[in-house]
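Bumping my old thread because nobody answered last time. Still need a sequence for this structure:
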């Protein structure tokens, strides 16, 4: 069995999983591979940078010849939850009511984020203001109108953590400093 595992996961977890596999499922072999390395290799490359964004953690990993360079891995307590919360705040500031009795605001906003928000190819400070809007149908059947600017702005927190009052610099700057130290 092949398992993908993130860097920093204690070896005791791997040992316990292996024990369960052999004792409970009669597995004949197991291998734990770094998820960043597997992602890089799935694109046909063995060297480069991977960026993994989870619900509450963002990880940038430098990979060379199929191995993660552990000294240059950068973690930041910032992720999809921060993007969702920023979008929710923006929508509420524009007076939008998203919830129904059975579907809370957060889940509706997360669906909006995952289905229609996007990253601007140009930094937002260089973009002209846009009057473009998107119609989004809520679970209760009502339709709301969301500006493209709102859908882009929420993603910027991944590049500029200070938008949410988070510590740390821009990921590309932090990683560049780590590479220069090596």
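Sorry it took so long. Here it is:
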């Amino acid at each position: 069995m092949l398992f993908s595992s993130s860097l920093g996961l204690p070896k005791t977890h791997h040992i316990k999983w292996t024990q369960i596999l052999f004792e409970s499922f009669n597995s004949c072999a197991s291998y734990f591979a770094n998820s960043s390395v597997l992602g890089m290799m799935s694109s046909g490359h063995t060297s480069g940078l991977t960026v993994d964004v989870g619900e509450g953690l963002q990880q940038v990993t430098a990979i060379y010849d199929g191995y993660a360079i552990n000294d240059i891995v950068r973690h930041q307590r910032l992720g999809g939850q921060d993007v969702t919360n920023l979008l929710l705040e923006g929508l509420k500031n524009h007076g939008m009511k998203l919830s129904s009795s059975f579907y809370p605001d957060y889940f509706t906003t997360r669906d909006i984020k995952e289905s229609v928000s996007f990253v601007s190819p140009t930094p937002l400070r260089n973009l002209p203001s846009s009057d473009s809007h998107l119609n989004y149908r809520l679970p209760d059947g009502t339709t709301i109108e969301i500006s493209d600017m709102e859908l882009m702005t929420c993603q910027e927190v991944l590049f500029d953590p200070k938008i949410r009052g988070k510590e740390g610099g821009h990921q590309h700057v932090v990683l560049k400093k780590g590479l220069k130290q090596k």
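The CA atoms of residues 128 and 149 lie 10 Å apart. Let me know if any region looks off to you.
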